[in-house]
Amino acid sequence: MTKNKITSLFKIKYPIIQGGMIWCSGWELASAVSNAGGLGLIGSGSMYPEILEQHIRKCKAATDKPFGVNIPLLYPQTDDHIEIIIHEGVKIVFTSAGNPKKYTAYLKEKGITVVHVIANKKFALKAVEAGVDAIVAEGFEAGGHNGFEETTTMVLIPTINEITNIPLIAAGGIASGKAMYAAMALGADGVQIGSRFAATHEASGHDDFKQAIVDANEGSTKLTLRQIVPVRLIKNEFFEQVEQAERDGATKEDLYKLLGRGRAKLGMFEGNTKEGELEIGQVSGMIDSIISVNQLVEEIVAEFNLASKIMNGISL
What we know:
316 residues; alpha/beta; TIM Barrel; 3-stranded antiparallel sheet; 14 helices; 11 strands; 15% strand; globular
């Protein structure tokens, strides 16, 4: 691949960014992705500040390539996380689930490249106004927390590309080189991949969660918990409890009580695939194996290059 806005911005080989997924994106996954030529991200959303500090230090020891930290801004210890990131010299931060104006200027003053994740035009423009260096536009195919608009990646990317001129990263439903090529044909400068990296040997999720990803089929995931924040989950016993509660007229407070604490940890990190919250994207239905990060990146790049070769030979 030739250099483009994303590879130049992050000083990486390929415009492939790993999603900062809770319970899956520890230092092993982040360093492996960076070593393979992409940009690895430590997912701080499931970490206490002292744990994040340990993961950053281990990641620095495992790679001399750029890596970053993903920070969901809705978490109560965000200030502590940011100070650790600055102290440890991390140069790339991806923010999500909150107002980008709150921290962007401060981070940039510290020499940090800032990227914000959005799911609609309104927040894309807010991110640009806040001064971020790039945007991740995430379609509703994605796993985990999602946008209320339920806009697909194929619609979202050209929409955001039309109204912004900063580097644009596509996310949601991307797990292959062909999907990456399609996203970039729509106007993205690079891609962020979550679900496919969750099903790699280096991901920190439980082996039973990884197997649940492999076992997922078309229609195995669905958005739920819309009264709180829409989240895409694998359908299991917990998911069915939520759906039944909503059919019975559950209030937001009822759903919070049902969700409880540590539900995502229970499923994704501890491997309780029946009662845990299993956050994953629609593309899980296309994932049929657990492989190494290096093999995955090589396959994505090879498939992207083949798709490019084929499409360059097509005219209408």
